[in-house]
Design brief:
heterodimer; A: alpha+beta; HU Protein, Chain A; 2 domains; three-stranded antiparallel β-sheet; two-stranded antiparallel sheet; 5 strands; 29% strand; extended; B: mainly alpha; 4 domains; two-stranded antiparallel ribbon
Chain lengths: 95, 506
């Protein structure tokens, strides 16, 4: 599902106009961003946890050229689905 | 750090951030995440701009072990949720480390991998040395053998040593020891046979025997050559160059020992010694080609190691050109030199153009005596380079403070400019609306002579097109620059000079 479709459904469910939904969403994004920058995580019951993780630097080999490269350390935002969501997905795949 | 907030706190923060009631925020968040969870659990992909993309990924069933009981079990295939953050989000989160970029490591940096490779190489080298030594030993035993004394035992020992030890050596490439063992063991037997032949030859009775021995060794050599040829063909199918070279070498070595044997009926020690070097060289050649094939293998190995391929990193770097350049150092060097020359030439020309120096000027600078048709006015210009010329060419002339006098005799054209130390005609204070051309018209009767006013005042006047009001401009004596409004030559000279100045201040 794409962004637009998702938000139109969300609007219907909430019964609000596009503008207020957008402001709320940008507020949510900002919170996640700020939390991530301070290396804190955001956990939502029934959905999952957004958590920034630090990845160490590493050396890889480019198979095309055989050159070795040093990949710098970085921080990535990871998402770990919660138990409820995980089970729902599993059930879905079992069916 | 590492603090976790859950939904209630999130609602609290959101209500504060978006200026709405807690109820609104709670409603929004619950609906948002429940809708997202619904979508995702249906197995659909969900893309939310600014946050990222949630994808369902199929995980193949795989065999595992029950941790408690140790019994083998199978984990059934299932869908897994994967999340990849949006570019904006990814960059925002990675902001503290954004200064780092992936870097190509130079080949000489030692890491675990590189150390391993080095060990392989040293092993190869050790083998090389060892083979060389054993051959030397063989050669020595051959030379030590005087016609009377056959040291078959020694030679046999050497042969045994040669035959065994390459097997013991740790080999980087599995095929290599086989290739080495064969020639190494073949040589000593050949040597002992030749040693036998020597004794027989000394007795001057066994000519026939010797011929048979010669044939034997010939056969042996041919067999060896064939073997090596096959080996090389099999090993380096792609390397046609080495394939072409080595068979030739093999043929040479096969024919070389044959020549002394047929020429002489008496096989003496020195001749034997003479017969051995080709074998050694043969061994060397074979070694070389083997080394080449090993190198080829090594080059191909990284291609196979595709495990750690990172698409993000290699998107924009496929430096095959660099590889090619490294393969042809001569061509690359030539190209680099040509490029450098071009850059230098271009830079010089550009600099000259910027300063308004023509090629003729430069020529006259480097070859002051050369009879080039130089425009006379080039002698007195505001540029340091040319004043240097003037000083050079007129070393004998009187050099007065502030001005330079050139003499007519030094210049064959006689067109030169008299720059004499004369006091300025007057000092004019610039007011608004004054132009150098107007001043020239006023004082000299022609607008074209403005250049000399500039020339006289260039130390205080950075740009003739922009005159600061209130500046006191010295108006030079017309005689100083040979100013004569009535003379066409004088006007032309001034115009030429003005052209140069204009080019400079464009």
């Amino acid at each position: 599902m794409e962004h637009k479709q998702f938000f139109s459904i969300l609007q219907e469910r909430l019964g609000k106009d596009k503008k207020s939904v957008d402001t709320l969403y940008s507020g949510l994004l900002q919170i996640i961003k700020e939390r991530s920058i301070s290396m804190d995580s955001v956990s939502v019951q029934g959905f999952g946890t957004f958590e920034p993780r630090k990845k160490l630097e590493r050396i890889t080999v480019n198979p095309a050229t055989g050159k070795r490269m040093l990949i710098p350390p970085r921080i990535v935002l990871t998402f770990k689905p919660g138990a409820v969501l995980k089970n729902r997905i599993k059930e879905n795949s079992a069916r | 750090m590492n603090a976790k907030i859950s939904l209630p706190e999130l609602i609290d923060q959101l209500s504060r951030k978006s200026d709405c009631t807690k109820k609104e925020a709670e409603q929004f968040l619950k609906e948002f995440f429940s809708l997202a969870a619904d979508t995702v659990s249906r197995g659909e992909n969900l893309k939310i701009n600014g946050l990222g993309q949630f994808r369902s990924v199929w995980v193949e069933p795989r065999a595992s072990v029950n941790v408690r009981t140790g019994e083998p079990m199978e984990i059934p295939g299932h869908y897994k949720l994967s999340f990849s953050p949006d570019k904006v989000m990814r960059e925002a989160v990675n902001a503290p480390f954004s200064c780092f970029i992936p870097e190509v490591l130079p080949d000489d940096v030692l890491t675990d991998e590189a150390v391993q490779a080095d060990e392989n190489e040293t092993a190869d080298e050790a083998e090389d040395i060892f083979v060389g030594d054993s051959q030397q030993v063989v050669a020595e035993t051959a030379t030590e053998e005087t016609p009377g004394a056959v040291v078959a035992g020694e030679a046999a020992d050497a042969g045994a040593g040669c035959g065994q030890q390459p097997e013991v050596e740790p080999a980087a490439v599995a095929e290599e020891p086989v290739a080495e063992e064969k020639p190494a063991s073949a040589h000593p037997s050949h040597e002992t046979l030749m040693g036998d032949a020597a004794t027989v030859g000394d007795d001057a009775a066994g000519d026939a025997d010797e011929e048979s021995v010669a044939k034997l060794s010939e056969e042996e050599l041919n067999a060896l050559a064939d073997f090596v040829l096959e080996k090389i063909v099999a090993e380096s199918m792609s390397d046609s160059a080495s394939r072409r070279e080595t068979p030739q070498a093999a043929e040479e070595t096969a024919s070389a020992p044959h020549a002394p044997m047929s020429d002489t009926t008496e096989a003496t020690a020195p001749e034997k010694a003479g017969g051995t070097p080709p074998i050694i060289s043969f061994g060397g050649d074979e070694e070389g080609s083997a080394g080449e094939s090993v190198e080829k293998c090594n080059n191909e190995i990284p291609t196979a190691g595709a495990e750690e391929y990172d698409e993000d990193v290699y998107e924009d770097c496929r430096p095959s050109l660099w590889d090619k350049m490294q393969q042809r150092p001569l061509l690359t060097g030539l190209c680099a030199v040509l490029l450098l020359l071009l850059i230098v030439a271009g830079g010089t020309l550009w600099q000259m153009h910027r300063r308004g120096i023509t090629l003729a000027d430069a020529w006259s600078y480097y070859f002051p005596s050369a009879p080039v048709a130089i425009p006379s006015d080039t002698l007195v210009t505001p540029y340091p380079v040319e004043t240097a010329t003037v000083v050079d060419s007129a070393e004998k002339a009187n050099i007065l403070p502030l001005t330079v006098v050139t003499e007519d005799e030094t210049e064959p054209l006689g067109d030169t400019l008299h720059v004499q130390a004369l006091p300025p005609l007057t000092v004019h204070r610039l007011s608004d609306g004054d132009r150098l051309t107007l001043l020239a018209l006023e004082f000299y009767g022609s607008k074209d002579f403005w250049v000399y006013i500039y020339e006289e005042n260039k130390t205080i006047m950075p740009n003739p097109n922009r005159l600061p009001v209130g500046l006191e401009v010295k108006i030079p004596d017309p005689r100083k620059y040979d100013i004569d409004a009535g003379s066409q030559r004088s006007v032309d000279k001034a115009k030429n000079f003005a052209d140069q100045l204009n080019r400079r201040f464009e």
